[in-house]
Amino acid sequence: MTSQPDTSQPDISQPAPTGAETPRRALPMRRPLSFVRRSNRLKPSYQRTWDAALGKELLEIPHGERDTSVAEGFRIDWAAEFGRSAPIVVEIGSGSGEAVAHAAAANPDTDFLAIEVYKPGAAQLVSRIRREQLSNVRVAVANAPEVLDQLFAPGEVAEVWIFFPDPWHKKKHNKRRLIDESFIDRVARVLPAGGVWRLATDWSGYAVQMRTLIGASARFKNPHAGERAGDASPLTEVRLHDLDAISMGKEPAPLELEQARDDDGGWAPRFPGRTQTDFETKALAVGRKIFDLTFIREP
Ligand SMILES: C[S@@+](CC[C@H](N)C(=O)[O-])C[C@H]1O[C@@H](n2cnc3c(N)ncnc32)[C@H](O)[C@@H]1O
């Protein structure tokens, strides 16, 4: 079902500028995509919903050279789009939108933008939004780094959520991971001081990468630094039994307690606003552990 990744894309490896004085800008550079291009074909019923929602719940985004890019100069006035001024939560990689739809229904005073490149997933979300008559969600089918750069002014987003980003767990694919230094700068730009970045992953290597990279950024603070360390850390448990290998049906190579012990911790408690998606349910069913992280934008 999957085709070869499109590598003819803008490189987004350069840090985006940050700070209240920083304007929006697009970065036409080269970097591997964090997603593999899959079939965009929709079932007829979803196609009908898609057509009806285009320009309404489904943002009509003019694309550049790729169908997932955002055309240079395209902007959205969010207050006009939602018909009000309310905090905006951006969920990146929404999949079929279980989490964002659930959160939008529970938080009618907050506006939500779901960003997803996979059209059939976005179509499911659009269908859900219409079925549940949620007026506070919009869907952007485009590459998330470009959406952040071009569609938001500095400090315009109250929270950024990324739950279960594609793990790209093979070493040779690690460079495709969405969360790297340049992406951290992008998120920092759109959040105001005190803004919140919530993440979750079921892949311990990616969890450590997030904890290390974002934790090292002067722009973010981990409000749970040092918490859930040692025996209380999910990382200790994963390493001790090599749960990642077991969950993939591979021969485990468990570590001795001394090497397995995660003395750093820093894991957040499960964010109560994050509903359990099918994706997480499947991960738990094969014995994977979930890592939650929260970071606060520093002034
Ligand atoms: C593993 S799925 C998780 C879906 C959902 N968050 C959940 O918990 O069920 C990751 C999603 O991120 C999307 N994605 C990956 N890179 C993206 C990007 N650069 N921009 C937008 N979506 C992206 C993928 O298409 C995929 O649907």
TrEMBL record:
InterPro entries in the record, alphabetically? Answer: SAM-dependent_MTases_sf, tRNA_(Gua-N-7)_MeTrfase_Trmb, tRNA_methyltr_TrmB_bact
User: So, what pathway does this thing act in?
Assistant: tRNA modification; N(7)-methylguanine-tRNA biosynthesis
Record-linked Gene3D superfamilies: Vaccinia Virus protein VP39
Q: Where is this region: Disordered?
A: 1-33
UniProt keyword terms in alphabetical order = Methyltransferase, S-adenosyl-L-methionine, Transferase, tRNA processing
Alphabetical list of HAMAP family matching this protein: tRNA_methyltr_TrmB
- What protein does this entry describe? tRNA (guanine-N(7)-)-methyltransferase
| Native species | Nesterenkonia sandarakina
Give the source lineage, highest ranks first.
Answer: Bacteria, Bacillati, Actinomycetota, Actinomycetes, Micrococcales
Q: Which gene encodes it?
A: trmB
